[in-house]
Amino acid sequence: MTSSKGLRSQYDDVWLMDGVRTPFADYNTVLGLVSPTDLGIKVAREVFRRTAVSPAAVDIVVAGSMAQASFDAYLLARHIGIYSGVPVEVPAHLVQRVCGTGMEAILAAADSIKLGKAALGLVVGTESMSRNPVAAYTHRGGFRMGQVEFKDFLWESLLDTCPNVTMGTSSETLAKQYKVSREDADHFAAQSFDRAIAAQKSCFLSGEIVPLVSEPFELPGYHARGIRLPKKVESFGQDSHVRPSPIAVLAKLPPSFGGVQTAGNSSGIVDGAAATLVASGPFLREHSHPPLAKVVAGAVVGVPPEIMGIGPVPAIRAVLEAGGLRLDQIDRFEINEAFAAQTLACQRELQLDPSKLNVNGGAIAIGHPLAATGVRLAITLARELKRLGGRYGISSACIGGGQGIALLVENASAQ
Prior knowledge:
Peroxisomal Thiolase, Chain A, domain 1
């Protein structure tokens, strides 16, 4: 699948300085009552601490969050900025590209730097799947007999009302098209869990995680906010969805959409946040902190909504075109594991080497907090390139509604 349409961006001197995320927590558990704004503040403060960059140096704040998870959610980007120490004069904006939101936020900051509008951007993706509301959209004028209707926002948002197809059903369509069996899907899921467990044991994942504790976020002259963990939980420091999941166990789970997809081979529903600092070359060279990766290119394309999961395929092809590279020059790929069949369809269409794809596990094992995922993928990819000594990597995600997004980064130390 190729297209001349879509957005392609190329960058000459834009960098990810560093990145960090919270541990991802299973839905309705340890982070179930924590605001995504507070999770975002925490990772923003931590990325400043790790880089020793002053928040006062930030020129733009770009944040993403999908769910209306609090009554002040429309102020999320602004609150993350000022509560993390960014000067009150610095503007902030919220972006939304569904599952591609985190990468979109990185590209938005990179574009501002490329255009000379900024030298340093704070980028945050944060999501509380647990705090998705139970909502009503038609009752402002009152309640009529027989027409009282409250729906689960999280569940209903899985349905694309354009083709009248759920995201899971779209994955089943790809399973048929690319001949992905239930056994294939379960094997891929078991591998994702195994790789994530290995990445935990080797402390690779902990290198990108800031443990959470109950703590206040003070802002002189303003209302204090913060993180409050449940009673008897002193600290939360490791992804909770990662667990042994052998094929024999996965095989016993019932289908969720009438085909190969189950709760065990679909992305985990989790809460979490991730942050990165996106910097211009001149700003980077003024500071001693070694960069995480160079941002080479980005791409966003559209695909038919009923097969939205194939979005990474044209997005990866487009970002390679923008970056002037071939597929065989890419050392590592991170494709968001929305569903096993969807990721396998992308792998088969692109003929990707499985040993290069999601080598530290993916969203099936780690989880998929929507807006945080894209930032997490970029951070994990860049760190893996450094560990490997590889030069180029691509992170990508399918997007509900029928889109794909991809980010091409370079480990400059591998040149």
